[in-house]
Amino acid sequence: MGLGVSHAEIAGRYRDPYHALRSYLEALDTAAPPLPSTARIIGAHGPQMTRLAAAKSTGVHPYLVSPAHTAWARSTLGEGPLLALEQTVIAHTDAEAARTTARTMLAPYLQLRNYRSAWLRGGFTDGGSDRLIAELFAWGKPDEIAARLTEHRLAGADHIAVQVVTDSPHSFARQAWRDLPPELLPG
């Protein structure tokens, strides 16, 4: 079961997301029947939630992260817990077109404090910069996309969920999925 604390801007104000999630996980431990920690994965970006996930779940599922964040998360988790991240792939080989699509997709997340905080911790100082876009998104030829996934694997990712984004956010990216290199697809 995937768990997270959402966003104050969406779910309403909450006092302490860390303690709220910790209490919820403890309630799952004592529920009848309990939900074992091995059946839980936490959507986490920051140090407190990542350490909580290592202690009370099977691992983390961070979203919109760079390979550097993947290395940090692996270091924080240690070798045991699962690190199953998301990598957004843009269906363009043209860098400027890819950046435009990425900025459109990223715009709502730039408004969310927990994502901004995670990116600031990662050394990004302004939202939507070319540098941030280049670190969070993969685009280009199939070998360039595969290289980004390899960066995450080398940084410690156990699993990478690929999300394909196109210029048309309201329709399924069927052709973009078909265009992915075979080695990226489940076999």
Kindly describe this structure.
With 187 residues, the chain is of the alpha/beta class. It has a single domain, classed as TIM Barrel, CATH 3.20.20.30. The protein is built from nine helices and six strands; from the N terminus they run βααβαβαβαααβαβα. Strands 3, 4, 5 and 6 form a four-stranded parallel sheet that branches. Strands 1-2 form a two-stranded parallel ribbon. Strand 3, helix 4 and strand 4 form a beta-alpha-beta unit. The longest helix is centred in the first third of the chain and has 14 residues. The two termini are 24 Å apart. The mean pLDDT is 88.
Summarize the SSE layout with pairings:
Layout lengths: L1 E2 L4 H4 L5 H14 L10 E2 L4 H10 L2 E2 L6 H11 L4 E9 L4 H12 L6 H9 L8 H7 E2 L3 H14 L3 E7 L8 H5 L9
Parallel strand pairs: 1-2, 3-4, 4-5, 4-6
**What is the assigned CATH homologous superfamily?**
Luciferase-like domain
Structural class: alpha/beta
CA gyration radius, whole angstroms: 17 Å
> What gap, in angstroms, lies between the N and C termini?
24 Å
**What low-confidence regions span 5 or more consecutive residues with pLDDT below 50?**
none
Domain count, please report it: 1
Number of strands: 6
Mean pLDDT: 88
The 3D shape can be described as globular
CATH architecture: Alpha-Beta Barrel
CATH topology heading: TIM Barrel
Give the topology string: H per helix, E per strand: EHHEHEHEHHHEHEH
Count of helical stretches: 9
Q: Outline the biggest β-sheet.
A: 4 strands, parallel
